[in-house]
Each structure stands twice: as structure tokens, then as C-alpha cells.
Design brief:
Blueprint (H helix, E strand, L loop, with lengths): L1 E8 L5 H14 L5 E8 L5 E3 L22 E4 L6 E5 L5 E7 L2 E5 L9 H8 L9 H8 L1 H10 L7 E5 H6 L1 H11 L4 E5 L9 E3 L5 H9 L4 E6 L5 E9 L3 E3 L3 E4 L7 H5 L4 E3 L6 H17 L4 E9 L5 E7 L9 H8 L4 H12 L4
Parallel strand pairs: 1-2, 1-7
Antiparallel strand pairs: 2-3, 4-5, 5-6, 8-11, 9-10, 9-11, 12-13, 12-14, 12-16, 14-15, 16-17
Helix pairs in contact: 3-4
């Protein structure tokens, strides 16, 4: 029986979301095919062997990795990768066991950005999801948008603003933005997900607060032109060489925009499948495949779109480790295609182990 390393938690601001996703994945893995080794990564980056019970701590709404289990590390050897337990001095205390494949359920920096993928590749462990390059492009909205532009994909106007530019001359930055983008704007950290750190700006007076919030997560902010009541559409993509795309689903946020609270704590409506014309669905299918290939994605992704009131279809972004929580769009899209949650997890593990 093969052993799966399930990685979750992590140092990013999406720690709790990762725990929610991992809890569902853990329950769905086929125990007739795989032995699961759950390893939580604490907020300070310690890898800890857990019992697989992922629950909120007292007084908290969302779960997190408890800093109480034994410390473990992943090491390579001529016989394959091994998970080892280490003592307080960093010495190997015992070998936990070999690792055959990994399922990183890590959202945001230090997990979805190619860092963990690079570690796994270095010790020779196949893993679910995109490789180092695709992961690093997918997490960086500036790099991702450049890749989409090179592929000729339609996108909304945007400007990247480094913290140094803003600190040097805020008035110049604000004026440049006003010259290039009509209000409203959406300001986002370049390398975050789950709409963390996002702010809506309708006037120049609101720009500073939005940038300060975004710069709390990244030195680069992406300022995007907003649109009047766009429809938010998403598809799931699976596969390596041969890829499959779901029918689109639609998000109907309970908030003004689909921020972290709306995604995970409130009652935003997810409509699957979306009520859109067939020709729009066909166009989304084509653009999703192109976006997937633009960054060299493998395994899985969720591709997000805007459909404006004028009928323009725009690629918003790609997520290489989409949410796997019960409220997440990605598993719901595949369920509508007849792929159950356990089947989805099984297929992802199969994709990870396909020959390169």
C-alpha cells in the first residue's frame, strides 16, 4: 500500500483555509489504496506529525495546526524519500516511514507558490498539482497576467505598484493610476489568495488605506479596474497532457465583492451550473484551457472569469491549489460533472504519479 503525505496548515494567512481543505481531503482518501501520513505545518513553519484530527481550537471559528506533535522532516535517500522524526537538537530520533506521493493542501505563500513543490521535487516525491514553475507563476498575479497576455487572453486593465514607488511619491502613483484606470479599482496583494488583503477604491482618498492593507501581505500590489456588477464565473480543470474542463459555475456574493469572509464565513451563493448562454460557456472552456497551458499547469486548477454587463468575457486568475472545503467551488463543479469528492481526490493522486 502506498503512503501519502498530506501537508496542510502552513505559514501563510490562509492557514485556516488549508486546514479546512485538508480535513475534507483526509476524509476522502481511499484507505484501501493509501496509508495517509498527515503532517501539519505550524504558523512558524514547524512540520509536525498529527493524528489527523483537524478541529478548531477553543474560542476559534476555524481550525489550525496545534504546535504539540513531534517534529518531522522529509529527507531523500537512495531508496526514496523518508519522513523522519527529529528531536529538539535536530537529530533524527526515528524513521516514520517512506513517502510515495504527497498531497500539498497548502494555500498561498510557502505552499502554493512553488516552495514546497521544489522541496518535494528535490527529494524525489511526486505530488498533486502544478510544478515549481507553474506554481510560482500562478501565485504571482503580475507574472500570471503577463503569461496570459503573452497567450493573447482577454483581461481587465491593471497596474502593478511596488511599495517603494508608493513610499517615494504617493501623489505621482495616484495620478498615474487615475490616468490609466477609471474608478472603481480593486487593490490586491500580488501573491495572496482567498481575496485576502483586497480593497475596493472609489476615490483617491481611499487609495492609501487599500495599499497599506495590501502591502501588509506583499511588497507588490495589483490595482485592477473594477466593473459594474460583473458576473463571477469559475471552472475546474483537471489533467496533465489531456485536460478536462467543467461547465462554469457562478458566484453570487453576499458582500459587495467576494472577499475572504464571503468565501468562508458567510452565505454567498454558488450556482452550479451557471445560467449562461451556450456560446459563453464554450468560450469559457476554450479560455480556461488556454490559461492552464499559459502557465504550464498540471494536475488541477480553478480558472476564474468576469462577464461584464457589456458582454465582455475576461480571464481574472488561475488558482493552482483551489479550495477543497465543503463550501469550495472546485469540488462542487466536479460533483456536477458526476465526479464525487473521493473520486476527485483519487484522480488527483493518479495524475501525480503519472510518468513525466
Amino acid at each position: 500500500m502506498k503512503r501519502v503525505l498530506l501537508l496542510y496548515g502552513g505559514r501563510s494567512s490562509e492557514h485556516e483555509v488549508s486546514c479546512l481543505s485538508a480535513r475534507s481531503v483526509l476524509a476522502a482518501i481511499d484507505r484501501d489504496r493509501y496509508e495517509v501520513v498527515p503532517v501539519g505545518i505550524t504558523r512558524d513553519g514547524r512540520w509536525t506529525l498529527t493524528d489527523g484530527v483537524i478541529q478548531p481550537r477553543a474560542g476559534r471559528a476555524l481550525p489550525e495546526v496545534a504546535d504539540s506533535g513531534p517534529t518531522v522532516a522529509l529527507v531523500g535517500s537512495k531508496d526514496g524519500a523518508r519522513l523522519v522524526q527529529v528531536d529538539e537538537d535536530g537529530e533524527t530520533a526515528k524513521v516514520v516511514g517512506r513517502i510515495d506521493v504527497a498531497f500539498p493542501v497548502l494555500h498561498g505563500p510557502w505552499g502554493e507558490d512553488g516552495t514546497v513543490q521544489g522541496l518535494l521535487a528535490t527529494v524525489g516525491v511526486p505530488y498533486v498539482g502544478a510544478d515549481v514553475t507553474a506554481s510560482s507563476i500562478g501565485i504571482d498575479k503580475g507574472a500570471m497576467k503577463a503569461a496570459f497576455a503573452a497567450r493573447g487572453l482577454p483581461q481587465g486593465p491593471y497596474v502593478s505598484v511596488h511599495r517603494r514607488r508608493w513610499d517615494t511619491d504617493p501623489s505621482l502613483v495616484a495620478g498615474t493610476l487615475e490616468d490609466q484606470l477609471p474608478y472603481p479599482w480593486f487593490v490586491k496583494p500580488a501573491r495572496q489568495g482567498s481575496s485576502i488583503g483586497i480593497g475596493r477604491v472609489a476615490t483617491r482618498d481611499e487609495l492609501e488605506a487599500a495599499l497599506v492593507e495590501a502591502y501588509g501581505y506583499d511588497d507588490v500590489a495589483i490595482v485592477e479596474q473594477g466593473f459594474a456588477s460583473p458576473r463571477e464565473l469559475e471552472v475546474g480543470v483537471l489533467g496533465n497532457e489531456d485536460i478536462e474542463v467543467t461547465a462554469p459555475g457562478e458566484i453570487r456574493p453576499s458582500h459587495e465583492f467576494y472577499d475572504f469572509e464571503a468565501k468562508y464565513l458567510d452565505d454567498s451563493e454558488l450556482v452550479v451550473p451557471a445560467d449562461i448562454p451556450a456560446e459563453v460557456a464554450e468560450r469559457i472552456d476554450h479560455l480556461a484551457r488556454e490559461a492552464y497551458r499559459a502557465i504550464g499547469c498540471t494536475g488541477m486548477a480553478r480558472v476564474d472569469f468576469f462577464l461584464t454587463a457589456d458582454g465582455d468575457l475576461l480571464v481574472n486568475e488561475i488558482n493552482t491549489i483551489p479550495g477543497f472545503t465543503p463550501n469550495s467551488m472546485f469540488p462542487r463543479l466536479w460533483d456536477a460533472e458526476g465526479v464525487t469528492y473521493p473520486q476527485l481526490v483519487d484522480r488527483l493522486l493518479d495524475f501525480a504519479q503519472e510518468p513525466a
